[in-house]
Write a structure and sequence with these properties.
Layout: H1 2-24, H2 29-36, H3 38-58, H4 68-93, E1 111-114, H5 128-133, E2 138-140, H6 154-168, E3 173-177, H7 179-191, E4 199-203, H8 219-223, H9 229-236, H10 240-243, E5 246-250, E6 269-272, H11 285-296
Parallel strand pairs: 1-2, 1-3, 3-4, 4-5, 5-6
Helix pairs in contact: 1-2, 1-4, 6-7
């Protein structure tokens, strides 16, 4: 569903750009180029506003504030990563790397990959060949409906956990980006699944919500508002033992989940990376390798 919507959106932008060039180029080529590039310029400006709001709110947070060079580097990298993921991988190549479940258990632990808000399994494309090369059975879920309650994703995670467990004979690791970490927590609550997972790795998950959630009118967006009733109810039903299963990556350059400490779950292990933005965190080589090492750890 999301891939189709993104394809329609991208083709609409392409038609708009072609229309601007055809209409204005003969007499006003500069206007034609400016109008054609306007959506890209708006995208760049909106992300810049996210970073400015993030930096301002992080000044009141316990996490050390990022430096200006770190912010600029993260902003630039996030622009490229967002274009790669939203304009290429997710709409056109989300299923080019299939799930992999070996016929016989090979001793390696399996992985369930859970994407975040307004994403699909395409965000994990660069992970899947590396997981297969290391012998890790894996299923990358698609969370649908895209706009709905986080609780609606429980069945998809349950099915994926069952498939990976059947293929490996042991509890899998849950690898989650952004909202995916909240979906994993919702599944743990509903399935009482503490003994059915080995570890939960979260990358930029708004465990305590995010300031940007106030601007969302989607149900899952409202659930991710700072200290929302849904988040408070979820936290109130978690034991210290369940939270000890989590390893949480977070960053003071995360332009979606801020203040930065909202991505740290009390009682979990924490991994602070100082100069990585939100979507970039799911592709950053240091994060990828560290998570692969964590997956392989007994």
């Amino acid at each position: 569903m999301l891939a189709r919507s993104q394809k329609v959106f991208l083709f609409s932008l392409l038609l708009y750009a072609v229309g601007c060039l055809v209409w204005w180029w003969p007499e006003r080529p500069w206007l034609a180029c400016g109008a054609a590039l306007l959506p890209l310029l708006v995208f760049v400006a909106v992300m810049g506003l996210e970073f400015m709001a993030m930096q301002r709110l992080n000044r009141r947070d316990a996490v050390p504030v990022a430096s200006v060079p770190q912010l600029l580097r993260a902003w630039w990298c996030e622009l490229g990563v967002a274009l790669l993921v939203f304009c290429w991988r997710q709409p056109f190549f989300a299923h080019t790397e299939p799930d992999w479940l070996p016929a016989q258990p090979n001793g390696a632990r399996g992985v369930v990959l859970v994407h975040g808000f307004m994403c699909n399994r395409g965000v994990w494309l660069h992970w899947l060949p590396r997981l297969r090369a290391a012998g890790h059975a894996h299923v990358a879920v698609n969370l649908e409906p895209v706009i709905g309650s986080i609780d609606a994703y429980i069945d998809a995670i349950e099915q994926a956990v069952q498939r990976v467990t059947a293929a490996t004979g042991q509890p899998p690791v849950l690898l989650c980006h952004s909202m995916g970490g909240l979906a994993a927590r919702a599944w743990l609550r509903a399935a009482e699944g503490d003994a059915r997972v080995h570890r939960v790795l979260t990358l930029g998950t708004p465990h305590a919500g995010t300031w940007l959630g106030r601007f969302s009118h989607a149900e899952n967006g409202r659930q991710m508002r700072l200290d929302s009733p849904w988040l408070q109810a979820l936290a109130g039903q978690e034991s210290p033992e369940r939270r000890s299963l989590f390893v949480c990556w977070y960053s003071p350059c995360d332009n979606i989940v801020f203040p930065a400490s909202t991505a740290a779950l009390p009682g979990a292990q924490h991994r602070l990376i100082s100069d990585v933005a939100h979507l970039q965190m799911a592709l950053h080589p240091l994060v990828v390798q560290a998570c692969l090492d964590e997956i392989a750890r007994p």
